[in-house]
Design brief:
Helix content is 32%, strand content 34%. It has helices at 3-15, 19-52, 64-95; strands spanning 101-105, 115-116, 122-132, 137-149, 157-161, 167-172, 180-190, 198-203, 209-214, 219-223, 226-230, 236-241, 247-249. It is globular and about 55 Å long.
């Protein structure tokens, strides 16, 4: 039943058949409905404006040292995520070597983490979805964002998302199970900044990094790869990592 017809029926029931009373009631109700619609539109505009406040990192305002720090942190977070994923895979592989999917809670492995040499990162939480596409290829996505602290670039918690087109791919060598090649694309959000809050990183042309894990030093790294950071207005800058995982800006 249409809005006006419903109002008409209700008005007749309440006020009888006096046409002036009915017309006045209909006009009043219509005004209330129109005002409510305007209020909803205003709330939607406010919500839209709030979403627009979540901007992207302006790399033009960064010094080379700051660019180096963003690149190193963004690379090494992937190193730490890979380390956690590796622990989950090894544990599951011992139970069921034919598994195809696996959930991995980062919080369960924080005390077992190795360290990165060139960045100070504290992983906090996050849940990984790991898919085994074949014997040697694994895909890592986030079921819940990875959260971490990296004081050199932010005083607050940063989130790392691997969903949709964003993912970490891991290729295990046929000859050596300890040899891992990886490429990645991920989205970062810095909750402490209202105008410089997000950026994306990705391997350049699917350039693979080598994941290294030194049992003697307990150091882990992504070495001999290339990546780039993409931010506001498609601003980009790139870097490579050397044999120890240190970022070298291009």
């Amino acid at each position: 039943m249409k809005k006006t017809s419903l109002i008409l029926v209700m008005s007749i029931i309440l006020f009888g058949c006096n046409s002036d009373d009915i017309k006045g009631t209909i006009d009043n109700v219509n005004n209330v409905i129109d005002n409510a619609g305007d209020a909803i539109d205003s709330l939607n505009d406010i919500a839209s404006d709030h979403n627009d406040d979540i901007a992207e990192l302006d790399t033009h305002s960064l010094t080379n040292t700051q660019k180096q720090n963003y690149a190193q942190i963004s690379t090494d977070v992937n190193t730490l995520v890979l380390s956690v994923a590796g622990m989950c895979v090894d544990k599951q592989d011992a139970i069921n070597p034919d598994f195809t999917t696996l959930s991995c809670n980062i919080a369960d492995h924080l005390t077992d983490l190795a360290i990165t040499e060139f960045s100070n990162i504290m992983l906090l939480n996050g849940k990984l979805d790991i898919t085994r596409q074949n014997k040697n290829l694994f895909i890592i996505n986030t079921n819940e964002d990875v959260t971490f602290k990296a004081p050199i670039i932010s005083s607050n918690t940063i989130s790392y998302q691997l969903q949709g087109d964003n993912k970490i791919s891991v290729q295990v060598s046929n000859e050596d199970d300890s040899s891992l090649l990886t490429s990645f694309s991920g989205f970062y959000t810095d909750g402490s900044q209202s105008d410089n809050s997000s950026w994306t990183i990705e391997s350049i042309n699917n350039q693979s990094f080598s994941f290294t894990d030194d049992d003697n030093t307990q150091l882990i790294a992504l070495t001999n790869g290339q990546a780039q950071l993409i931010s506001k207005d498609n601003q980009t800058y790139g870097w490579s990592t050397n044999t120890t995982g240190k970022v070298i800006l291009k």
